[in-house]
Design goal:
The structure is a single chain. With 191 residues, the chain is α/β, with parallel strands linked by helices. It has 6 helices and 6 strands. Strands 1-6-5-2 form a 4-stranded parallel beta sheet. Helix 6 links the parallel strand 5 and strand 6. Helix 2 crosses helix 4. The longest helix has 13 residues.
Length: 191
């Protein structure tokens, strides 16, 4: 989707790959409720900030109120709060999820896009009109949720929406090992 330009966000940045220790830390925060991890994870977001960009506000990826109650927090908001303080820009809870949707985990790209179609609404339009918005989330998988959020923000008047995440899932098929053999090489010698 992103490779073909089918996203509503203007740019995407992330700290690292969604595997190993970073994946473990995200899971501890998100599923084991280890909230003190939010600050060190936010520090990783700071390292991934683009130095050549300016943003007017930070908008955390919203979760449905039922999921927020059952989890006790919104992990995107937890990691975005210290980032907003560091950048000295407001954190604006401009998005909400008015309808409960099943988790995106385990869905195909097309199913993810269908699942988030119409899932986000803007509730603080005055605070994002004409603004350069930094949308913050924990994990970038296919970009379906981020694109749906960016589309809602732009429809409400945001001038620019960039995505910043802790980790990126690489969903491309593993590249086959390529082996060179003398028959495959060409000489680059002088003529």
């Amino acid at each position: 989707m992103c490779r073909h330009g089918f996203t509503a966000f203007d740019a995407a940045y992330c700290f690292g790959s969604y595997d190993g220790k970073l994946r473990d830390l995200i899971h501890l925060l998100k599923y084991q409720s280890i909230e003190p991890l939010a600050k060190p994870l936010s520090n990783l977001l700071i390292k991934a900030l683009p130095l050549d960009q300016r943003f007017d506000c930070i908008v955390p990826m919203p979760i449905h109120w039922f999921r927020r109650i059952s989890r006790g927090f919104n992990q995107a908001e937890l990691i975005a709060t210290p980032l907003a303080k560091y950048m000295s820009i407001p954190l604006v809870r401009a998005l909400r999820r008015p309808h409960y949707r099943p988790s995106q985990v385990g869905k195909t790209n097309a199913q993810r896009r269908d699942n988030v179609r119409g899932a986000f609404a803007v509730n603080k339009q005055k605070e994002i009109i004409g603004q350069r918005v930094l949308l913050v989330d924990d994990v970038f998988t296919t970009g379906a949720s981020a694109s749906a959020c960016a589309a809602a923000l732009k429809l409400a008047g945001a001038k620019h929406v960039s995505l910043l995440t802790l980790a990126r899932v690489d969903r491309r098929p593993a590249m086959a090992e390529f082996r060179f053999s003398p028959a495959n090489t060409t000489s680059m010698g002088a003529a």
